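Figure 2 data, in text form.
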Amino acid sequence: MATITFSVPATTTSRFAVAADRIPHDLAGVLRRAASGPYAPHIAGRLGSSQLQITREDVATLRWDPGAVRAAGPGDRQAALAFNGATEFAVVTTLGPITDQPRGVQVARAAAYAIAKSTGGIAADLVTGHVLAPSTAERTRFVLADRWLGDVLPPFRANGRCTAPDPDLAPEGLNGCACVRLRTRGLRRFGLPELQITDVACPHDLAALNVLRAAARRLLTDHWSWLATGPAEGTRTIPAALDLTQRDFNDFWGSTRRVRLTPPAPFQLTLSPLTTRLLTVSPPAEFDGTVNDWLSGDTLPLGMYDVLKAAADPSRAA
């Protein structure tokens, strides 16, 4: 059986930033006063350590580009533009053991939300490169769909970059277009390689994105189970063939509501190392066809063809 071996870092770093018209110099004081809810004790206990560093920065001293932060969706465009043009920032950095995830990054993001609320600012995740949704609190239960993955669709047809004809009209059919490449940004903070799928036709971009989402959730679930065993080595070996089910897709959203009387059969994909920190996703080894033939078939659970956003169950995301 083919396998993939990758290194697992002992620690990972994540950074969040808050842009505001005026960022106070005493950010630690601001955070102590603003932090509330279930993460307040964690913020107080970690503040000032490597697990929660807060710094004030301005455009003259930045070593990162605010203009590289983008909107995760159309509703975030104004926030992204405001972030891009800001001159003062509060930067929240967390450097912690891989076994402290996801709590470490949740505490850091909760701190960023608290600062944003106090200053009237806009928070962004510098790992995914996206502005964050306006929020007053970080949810206590971890849900991967809660903007941890940097998973967005490229607007190829909307901005005219895709000139391929409709697959129903093209002589090559659905393989006449293969311009979409999707990649996760965020798995590395949990000690996993990122995932990528390429050569996807525009009409199947959502199915491809949901394949990445389900695969990421399954890999993360298995990864945390592996970490819980306390392995001494700094590498991990996994099968190259990954079996997924509807449950993996539901777990990505933190939802149990998409339940059918007859659950769809599991489906399989193949992982291949492109670099040491990036795995490609492709159809099963025995599949005879292109990635678009695979995505357009009846292998995937139905929800993966039409679900772009979904709310988590309150009981699982509170």
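Caption note: DSSP finds eight helices and twelve strands in the chain.
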